[in-house]
Amino acid sequence: MKSQNRPRICLVTPALAAANNGNWHTAERWARMLDGPFEVLVTDCWRGEPADALLALHARRSADSIQAWAAAQPDKPIALALTGTDLYRDIHHDAAAQRSLALASRLVVLQERAVDDLPEPFRDKAVVCFPSVEPVPAPPRPVPLPLSLLMLGHLRAEKDPATAWAALRRLAGRNDWRLDHVGAALDAALGEQAAALQAQLPAYEWSGALPHAQAREWLARAHLLVHPSVIEGAATVIVEAVAAGTPVLASRIPGNVGLLGADYAGLFEPGDSAALATLIEGCLDDPAMLPALSEAAARRAPLFEPAREQATLRALMADLLEIPRP
Known about the structure:
The protein has helices spanning 22-34, 63-72, 84-88, 95-103, 114-117, 161-170, 188-200, 212-221, 236-244, 254-260, 273-285, 289-298, 306-321; strands at residues 8-12, 39-43, 53-57, 78-81, 106-109, 126-128, 147-152, 177-182, 204-208, 224-227, 248-251, 267-268. By secondary structure, the chain is an alpha/beta fold. The strands form two sheets. A six-stranded parallel β-sheet has the order 2-1-3-4-5-6, with helices on both faces. A six-stranded parallel β-sheet has the order 9-8-7-10-11-12, with helices on both faces. Strand 10 (224-227), helix 9 and strand 11 form a beta-alpha-beta unit. Helix 2 (63-72) packs across helix 4 and helix 6 crosses helix 11 (273-285). It is elongated, with a radius of gyration of 20 Å.
């Protein structure tokens, strides 16, 4: 039952629990963090339910809800959280996504580089809210060979698994590594390629999708996360890796740099399989490299603490509603 003292927020996400993807994990986490001072309704589309503010994920895919809200109650605020495909694709050419930017009262971005990647007229609306995760206790990680590498992410073009696969082929002559790949084949052709590589390269194993809790356990045990995306807003899996103390090798795209820092030594140019293979070889051959990457990632960990994310979200919504911050 709704409390008369709690403002109601309608949180619109294009992906609900069944999708088990980044949008859903963000929506579910934000709903928990806002609950208390606020009542939160989570839905895939605003259908006219009474609420005091709209918090929408994804400029293009939530565009209909944003437009309907603005038309029905233009005096009530809209906060829009921007994904990687928003920032680095849709808002530059999609009319619906551009309309969402204009209608939003605030734009929520998930890493520090994202403000600079917004069109200049909208930057004053931006609020940086780093994602967070509750740490999973990590077991001791001695580094006996083979080195345990992990990729976590559904198979689709934005995640660019092909670059990782090409790097692994360059390492096929070595027997001191193995890579587990977790993720559903959202692109059937990429699924076929993963299955073919698994047949050709015994050190590579594609496990398909796993429950999120189990995937995080694998991440906590791995020696190294490989994350070669070409489009990324702020990858939850990188935040989870940092929280678990797992070093990361990631493509040098704004969404990854904004989480790990521009001087992080585990970055490679997007699509550069040779550079990725060289970094993996460094982790295999240089005993100092893994600890150095772990220490560099650990310096970023305070950005991803749940209390920080919760305080940012609650302050954002309170300011929009012009009420005292909780």
